Amino acid sequence: MTFEELKPIVSKIILKENATRDEKLKEICQLLSENISYYDWVGYYFANHETKTLHLGPYVGAETDHTVIPFGKGICGQVAESNANFVVPDVAAQDNYIACSFTVKSEIVVPLFVNDVNIGQIDIDSHIINPFTDADERFLEFVNKEVSKLF
Ligand code: SME
Predict the structure, then answer these.
(1) Which of 54, 124, 144, 146 could bond to 69 as cystine, CB 3.0-4.6 Å?
(2) What is the number of the ligand 1 atom nearest to the C-alpha of 77?
(3) Using one digit for the tens of pLDDT, what is the confidence trace for 75-86?
(4) Does the pTM of the predicted model rise above 0.85?
């Protein structure tokens, strides 16, 4: 499915009446991982600004040990501080990277803003090198804009 085809489905999930926020987030993760061939792990992390840590939320893909990530650590921790998208074409070239599995070759993290505050992020791992383009960034920004309505 194309990004343009996926967008209205994301919006529909957000508007569902009989689902919790976590159920909707999980459904979005599922939608993305099932329909975009190179999205192999899709999940949300949420920030605790007092303890300066990220906490794993709903996700789809291999189980991960990294359920809590300090701000500044790894790709996710860096985005918690930079408030900017982070596209990693080849994780092997990153010094500040937390490896989940040797099968992961690339990663994209896009922050989630609610009232201009970075409250978390969507994190996507791929088993392919360099699969992400500007189109992925724009699409994931759209997804997070929709998700921000749940907060
Ligand atoms: N690779 C991430 C850690 C989280 S996992 O990909 C699920 C990072 O470097 O922040």
Answers:
(1) 54
(2) 10
(3) 999 999 999 999
(4) yes
